[in-house]
Amino acid sequence: MELDNKTVIYIGFDDTDSLRGGCTTYLALAIIDSISNHCNFLDYPKLIRNNPNIPWKTRGNGSISITVEIDRENIAYIKQIIQKQVEQHYHMDENTNPGLVIIEGEISKEIQEFALRALVKNISILEAKELAERFCLFHFSKGNGRGLIGGLAAIGNLLEPEKEDFTFELLAYRTEEFIGSKRRINEKSVHEMDQQLAPKVFNNIDSETNKVLICPAGKDPVFFGIRGETPQDVLEAFSLIEVEEPIGGYCVFRTNQGTDQHFKYADSKAENYSVFKGEVEVLERPITITGGHVFFKGKICVNGEEVDIAAFEPSKNFKKTIKKLIPQDRIIAYGGVKYKEEFKKHSVHLEKCEIVFLSEYYKEEAPLCPKCSKRMTSDGYLKGYKCRSCGYKDKNMVKTLKILERDIKKKLIIPPEQAQRHLVKPFRRYNLQKKTSYEIIEKWWKRSSQV
To answer: Of the chain's two ends, which shows fewer C-beta atoms within 10 Å, N or C?
Structure first.
C-alpha cells in the first residue's frame, strides 16, 4: 500500500528469549521506542500466541508484529535500527534462534494461511524460510532460524475485528537492578482492581486458590501483565496496581489470548504436537496416576482411533469432574496431541472439555418379593431368590437393574485460571458482547529507563 511517498511495513519477530532470561515483548517495546520518531503506528503491537504444543517453545509460544507507516526513503534506516535492536536484546542461548521479517505492502494469502496453520500444527523451519524468501522485503535470523516461523505468523494473523476475537494485554517492565529478584507488588491492590473492573479484565486471580496470577516467576524483565477487553480497561487496571519497585516502562498489546482461536481452526485428527478438537467416547473409567494426573482411554468418534485423554495438575476441580466420567459417555475434547512411542498411541492433553452425552449408570439389586414387596435374597447358585419375610421362592427370578442419578451434568468445563494456557477462553469472557472495532489511544506505551 503506497500513499504518496509513504509506505506500510509489517515487522515480525520471535524466539529472542530463553528460559534463563530475555523477553520478546520487551524487545517490541525497545523497537517501538527506537523507531517512534520515524513512523506512524497503525495498530498496537500484536502479541500472537501460536500452537502451545510445540515442544521447543520457551513459555507461551508468543510472537510479535508491529505495523507502521513510514517514508519510503527511510526503509533502509528503519531496517537497520530494528535489526540492531534484535541483535542487542536477544538472549544468547543454544536453544534461542531469533528470526526477524519485514513485509511491505499487502500481506499475501499464503502468509495469512501460514499464520492460521501455525496456531494448530507443527510448522517446518524450511517452509518459513521459503516464504520469507518469496514475500519479505527483508529477513534475518540466527541459529536454525526457527524465529522466522513466529515472525511470519504474527504478521499473517491479522486479528481482523469483524472476523476474529481479540483481547488486550498491558505488560509492565522492571528496571535493570531488580531483574532476578522477587517482584514487589501489593497483592491486595490486585484483588481490589480485579473486583472493581470484572469482567472487563480477566485471569488476574485464580478462582480456586485466590492466588495472584499477573506476575511471572522467571528472570525476564516483565514485572506484571494485565489482560482485558479494551486498551482503556488495561490502562485503568494499571493505574490501580500498587507496586513497591520502580517500573521501567509498559506497553499495550493487541492479542489472541483468551479467545480460543487455536480451537477455531483445529480438527479431530490426532497428530503429534497438533491442536485437537473433536468428539471422544469414553472407553474406560478414568484413573489417577502418580502426581495426581488423571487419564482415561477414549475413542475419537469420527474415525474410531483410540487415544489416551489426560487432565493434569493443577487443574483441581476440572480433574474431579473428569474422574466422574464412565464408559459410553461422550465429550468434545479440546487440547494438544502428543504421540507416545512406547505405547504406539496418541494422547490428548485437555485444555478444556464439553460433556455432551451421559450414559445411564445402573446398579444391580435383588428383586422385590411379588407378595410382600420386601427385598429378596439369593436362594443359592441357580436356585433363584427367596423372601425371608414371607417365605416366597422363585427359581426363575433374577437381579434387577436400578438407574442411578449421575453426579455430573452435560456442560462445558474449564480448568482454573492458574492451569489455563494463554489461548484458552476463560469463563469470564463468555457472554460478553463481541468487539467489532477498537481505537488507538494516547500513552499506550512508555519506556522510562533502559533494561
So the answer is: N
Task: Tell me the C-alpha distance between 29 and 446, whole Å.
Answer: 8
C-beta separation of 226 from 238 below 8 A: yes
Assess whether 85 and 115 both reside in one domain. yes
> Which DSSP letter does residue 417 get?
G
CATH number of the domain within which 198 lies: 3.90.600.20
CA distances from 399 to 327, 372, 391 (A): 22, 17, 18
Within a domain: residue 444? no
**Residues 317 and 247 placed together within one structural domain of the fold:** no
Assess whether the previous peptide bond of 199 is cis (omega < 30° from 0). yes
Closest CA to 135 of 103, 178, 93, 176: 103
For residues 69 and 35, the answer to whether their CB atoms sit within 8 Å is no
CB of 420 closer than 8 Å to CB of 203:
yes
Burial of 342 (0-12, 13-18, 19+ CB in 10 A): exposed
Per-residue pLDDT, averaged over 109-130, amounts to: 98
Backbone angles phi, psi at 262, to 5 degrees: -65, -35
Q: Which domain holds residue 116?
A: 2-158
Element counts in the chain: helices (H) and strands (E): 9, 24
Is residue 272 domain-shared with residue 414, that is, in the same domain? yes
Go through 198-224 and write b for each residue having 16 or more CB atoms within 10 A of its CB, e for each that does not. Answer: ebbbbbbbbebeeebbbbbebebbbbb
353, 278: one domain: yes
User: 290: which residues sit within 8 A by CB, 6+ positions away?
Assistant: none
pLDDT digits (tens, 9 = 90+) for 156-190: 999 999 999 999 999 999 999 999 899 999 999 99
Residues 299 and 281 sit within 8 Å (Cβ to Cβ): yes
What's at 74, amino acid-wise?
A: N
Q: 117 in a domain, yes or no?
A: yes
Alpha helices in 61-218 (DSSP H): 75-89, 109-118, 125-135, 147-156, 187-197
Handedness of CA 182, 185, 186, 188 (dihedral sign): negative
Give the pLDDT confidence of 320-346 residue by residue, as tens digits.
999 999 999 999 999 999 998 888 999
How many domains does the chain contain in total? 4
List residues bridging with 226 in a β-sheet.
170
Q: How many residues does the chain have?
A: 451
Half-sphere exposure of 22 (CA within 13 A, CB side): 24
Cα–Cα nearest to 328, from 279, 276, 288, 365: 279
